[in-house]
Design brief:
Helix content is about 30%, strand content about 25%. It is an alpha/beta fold and about 450 residues long. α4 packs across α7 and α7 packs parallel to α8.
């Protein structure tokens, strides 16, 4: 009689060590044992010796619903499985209406339960006017975090929340222990810079970076943490692209405040000199892609363990939203859920950083941030979310993407790993070439109490 349902054998990467020729044993959808040497017997055994075995990735910043009737939870979760992502943390800024009350939240939960191929946790947000009173209902419904913006990208879908309202929201959320994530951008400086450049006819791809200076980001980041310090809330900057942003976060962390910081893989792997010139509006993100010297400083913070986690900020805009010669008329963001893991792994390898950092930044870190108690690690009792990575040289081809679009800022980029298999709670979701599970096999995740 077999001891376990499933055993995978390979080089097991944990957050603190690598087990060469190790194994992960699974029983009842949970990790039952992790060890070295000859594996125990199991109903199903998979030999991945020479390949890497890591926990399933948690992408802490996904926008599956930003464009109505385009991608959605179902299609996005298929792309997630292909990218080794076993948990999507989906943002609330859906079109046509953001998730600002428990009714809308529960409708989205029902969509997850019907359509998802991987597990999904959900951010919530609030309306500009009279939105604070919806917070208790959203907490009760199972929001894993709340998102606010200091900049109005869209008056309905992505509005600006004033500092006084953010303060009150933080104050109310502090006792819950939930993350308070903020889009960190100074609105007045941004708009003045854009108006000045447009007036001068300076609207090429490189103008976006000059309009969105590091100071615009850093000032907003500092305000977020100061509001957190005043309220005792878990203040979180959601996409930091500057070294100074990490320095600011460290000041508050060292002072004992509940400050946390996130960067996105594009700020580590893309740079202004090479990629803005090559891809133009396709690499228009907020914040902007920074010069190479700044990306290297970000890597120093990754190596030092200053980052809480790295995400993709995935959004599958159609190219019709990325094709205007005036850079300011194009949408910000791009697809990335399939490239998060291979790109970050490759970047760590290129910078001499251990694969254990991949587990810290893509698995363990976001699990802690969003209070996902059974996720992000390979140890007895945790959910058996497991990814197998094959080493080699793999140029990324977006024409094979499972997301809603077939373009990528990583087109042609050679990665040093590819996802050979993805397991969600011990069940095969991706076999390296095709989705193997069904819509609805993914679950909605509530944060731990």
């Amino acid at each position: 009689m077999s001891d376990f349902d499933l055993v995978l054998r390979g080089n097991v990467v944990l957050s603190d060590r690598i087990i060469e020729d190790g194994y992960v044993a699974v029983s009842g959808g949970k990790v039952a044992a992790v060890g070295a040497g000859a594996p125990p017997s199991a109903r199903e055994a998979q030999d991945f010796r020479g390949q890497w075995i890591i926990p399933g990735v948690i992408d802490g910043q996904v926008h599956s619903g930003s464009q109505a009737n385009h991608e959605g939870i179902g299609m996005c979760s298929r792309a997630a499985a292909a990218g080794g992502v076993t948990v999507m943390v989906d943002m609330p800024y859906d079109e046509p209406e953001p998730v600002t009350n428990s009714t809308l939240f529960n409708e989205k939960v029902a969509t997850v339960q019907r359509d998802a191929h991987v597990d999904v946790a959900l951010y919530a947000t609030i309306t500009v006017e009279n939105g604070l009173d919806a917070i208790p209902g959203l907490v009760e419904a199972g929001a894993c975090a709340f998102k606010f913006s200091t900049f109005e990208a869209n008056p309905t879908r992505f509005p600006r929340i004033g500092d006084d309202t953010i303060y009150e929201a933080f104050r109310r959320l502090a006792p819950t222990g939930l993350l308070c994530g903020v889009h960190n951008q100074d609105q007045e400086m941004t708009r003045r810079n854009i108006a000045r450049l447009i007036e001068a006819g300076d609207t090429g791809p490189d103008a976006f970076g000059r309009a969105h200076t590091p100071l615009i980001e850093n000032l907003a980041t500092a305000r977020i943490y100061e509001i957190g310090a005043e309220t005792g809330a878990r203040a979180h900057a959601v996409h930091v692209s500057t070294s100074r942003g990490f320095e600011i976060a460290n000041l508050y962390k060292r002072a004992g405040y509940k400050a946390s910081i996130e960067s996105c893989v594009q700020y580590l792997m893309l740079n202004e000199e090479e990629h803005v010139r090559r891809f133009g509006a396709k690499v228009k993100h907020y914040p902007p892609i920074r010069p190479k010297a700044e990306t290297e400083l970000l890597w120093s913070h990754i190596a030092a363990g200053h980052c809480d986690f790295v995400s993709s900020d995935h959004v599958s805009w159609g190219l019709e939203k990325k094709s205007d010669p005036n850079i300011f008329k194009n949408t910000s963001g791009g697809p990335g859920i399939e490239t998060l893991l291979p790109a970050f792994w490759t970047g760590c390898e290129e910078h001499g950083i251990s694969p254990t950092m991949v587990v810290k930044q893509l698995c363990e870190g976001p699990a802690k941030a969003f209070l996902l108690a059974d996720k992000g690690r390979l140890e007895a009792g945790a959910d058996a979310d497991i990814v197998v990575l094959e080493s080699g040289r793999f140029p990324f081809d977006p024409s094979k993407s499972l997301s809603a679009v077939k373009w990528s800022s990583f087109e042609g980029r050679e990665f040093t790993v590819r996802v050979a298999a993805t397991y969600v709670r011990g069940a095969l979701a991706w076999d390296g070439s095709a989705i193997r599970n069904n819509a609805g096999d993914g679950r909605f995740l509530r944060p731990a109490a």
